[in-house]
């Protein structure tokens, strides 16, 4: 407990009064009386404040929230006393959360409740805990400030940012997927699975004409095909040290999670089963499953995955996946590589391609593209430009080696990965390659 601003002002007034009382006996007696009264009131007020219980507190917060999205938290205070309570409130949010409207001054009427809302924005995924609430309560006569800590804990889930999925769903409804960079090829009646018979339409090929039905109904009847369903997509997610790199404040692991969730959503709409496996850190396995709740299930499995300081062992991860996933699938390897990783990675994808159709999604740092886009004005920039150009050329050469091995390769920045992954998946479905 500490003195309030009012107590400091009273003490300052008494000091000035004491100086004046030195020169007058009458003022000295008045000063002593005034000082005694003020001291008595301060002691009485302090005793009342010390014995007074804090107001009741409850916190209303969503127990799941999206990374980097503003969410409202509400604190509610119940005043059980017969006086107005004035207090300053500060909620102990999880470390690293950005807050707005914190701390705040609040007045709670006698025998009433008051609400104090504020906003938070999570900066990292996982299980996060609100430790408690700090209150600074004014005493009844406002002479003292009593600090009280209320250990009111709540644990929330911070999930990957799924705004990309919402945008995909909205734009797909309006047939405006090009805004996401997704180029869905318009095809009519083509695919690899038979769907139905229908009347012939201009533009149908001879392959589509069903001659027996045409003979029976005495008019041209076409076969309509659709993309194959009931296929399986498995993500191999690198959680090693390469994925700790950040572009524009977001780690590559966060970006890759968003991209994989978007593709999982698209694949579930195509009635394909989706699963994932993590490596180079905490190892998790989610067998491929079908259903519209697949994305929610995956979210609950991956929201707290964090990147580790381990180097990825691609061959060991590939061997583990070959043991876990028996059925032929589309395996998407999500990673970020350097030159020293390619020999191990090449051995891994050779193992995978024996049974699975494999896509390598290799994340490229945005600073490389930024460096190549800058103009060269001095010798230092020329050296930097030359070094980055050589690195990227070697990267392209190695990716050509992967493609010659029959491995589809995506070389994109983390920001461009979601649309690139979906485009590759749709091309694979359209071509009936799986």
How would you portray this structure in words?
It is a single chain. The protein has 434 residues and is an alpha+beta fold. It has 11 helices and 22 strands. Strands 19-18-15-20-21-22 form a 6-stranded mixed beta sheet, sandwiched between helices. Strands 1-11-10-5-7 form a 5-stranded antiparallel beta sheet. Strand 16 (246-247) and strand 17 (250-251) form a beta hairpin. The model is unreliable at 186-191 (pLDDT under 50).
Descriptive labels:
11 helices; 434 residues; alpha+beta; single chain; 5-stranded antiparallel β-sheet; 6-stranded mixed β-sheet; 4 domains; Immunoglobulin-like; Rossmann fold; 22 strands
CATH architecture call of the largest domain: 3-Layer(aba) Sandwich
Number of helices: 11
How much beta, percentage-wise? 25-35%
Largest sheet: 6 strands, mixed
* Total beta strands: 22
Spatial sequence of strands, sheet with the most strands: 19-18-15-20-21-22
| Overall pLDDT | 87
Q: Report the span from N to C terminus.
A: 71 Å
| C-alpha Rg (nearest Å) | 33 Å
Helix fraction bin: 25-40%
Based on helices, strands and strand pairing, what is the structural class? Answer: alpha+beta
**What's the level 1 CATH class of the largest domain?**
Alpha Beta
What is CATH's topology name of the largest domain?
Rossmann fold
Whole-number tally of structural domains? 4
**Any idea what the CATH superfamily of the largest domain is called?**
von Willebrand factor, type A domain
């Amino acid at each position: 407990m500490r003195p309030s601003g009012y107590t400091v002002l009273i003490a300052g007034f008494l000091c000035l009064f004491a100086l004046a009382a030195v020169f007058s006996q009458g003022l000295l007696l008045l000063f002593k009386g005034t000082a005694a009264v003020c001291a008595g009131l301060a002691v009485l007020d302090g005793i009342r404040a010390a014995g007074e219980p804090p107001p009741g507190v409850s916190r209303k917060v969503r127990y799941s929230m999206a990374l980097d999205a503003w969410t409202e938290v509400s604190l509610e205070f119940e005043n059980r006393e017969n006086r107005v309570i004035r207090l300053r409130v500060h909620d102990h949010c999880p470390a690293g959360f950005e807050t707005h409207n914190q701390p705040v001054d609040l007045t709670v009427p006698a025998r009433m409740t008051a609400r104090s809302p504020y906003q938070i924005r999570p900066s990292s995924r996982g299980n996060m805990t609100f430790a408690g609430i700090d209150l600074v309560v004014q005493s009844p006569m406002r002479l003292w400030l009593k600090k009280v800590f209320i250990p009111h804990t709540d644990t929330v889930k911070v999930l990957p940012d799924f705004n990309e999925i919402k945008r995909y769903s909205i734009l797909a409804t309006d047939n405006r997927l090009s805004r996401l960079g997704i180029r869905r090829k318009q095809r009519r009646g083509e695919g690899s699975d038979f769907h139905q018979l229908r009347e012939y339409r201009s533009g149908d090929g001879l392959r589509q004409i069903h001659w027996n039905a045409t003979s029976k109904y005495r008019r041209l009847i076409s076969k309509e095909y659709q993309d194959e369903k009931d296929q399986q997509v498995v993500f191999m997610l690198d959680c090693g040290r390469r994925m700790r790199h950040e572009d524009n404040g977001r780690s590559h692991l966060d970006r890759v999670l968003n991209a994989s969730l978007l593709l999982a959503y698209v694949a579930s709409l195509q009635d394909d089963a989706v699963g994932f496996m993590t490596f180079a850190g905490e190892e998790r396995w989610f067998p491929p499953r079908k259903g519209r709740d697949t994305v929610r299930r995956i979210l609950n499995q991956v929201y707290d995955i964090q990147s580790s300081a381990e180097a990825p062992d691609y061959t060991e991860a590939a061997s583990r996946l070959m043991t876990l996933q028996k059925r032929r699938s589309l395996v998407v390897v999500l990673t970020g590589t350097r030159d020293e990783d390619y020999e191990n990675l090449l051995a891994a994808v050779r193992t995978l391609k024996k049974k699975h159709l494999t896509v390598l999604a290799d994340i490229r740092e945005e600073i490389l593209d930024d460096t190549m886009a800058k103009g060269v004005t001095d010798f230092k920039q020329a050296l930097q430009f030359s070094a980055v150009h050589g690195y990227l050329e070697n990267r392209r050469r190695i990716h050509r080696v992967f493609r010659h091995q029959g491995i589809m390769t995506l070389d994109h920045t983390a920001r461009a990965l979601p649309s690139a992954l979906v485009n590759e998946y749709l091309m694979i479905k359209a071509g009936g390659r799986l």
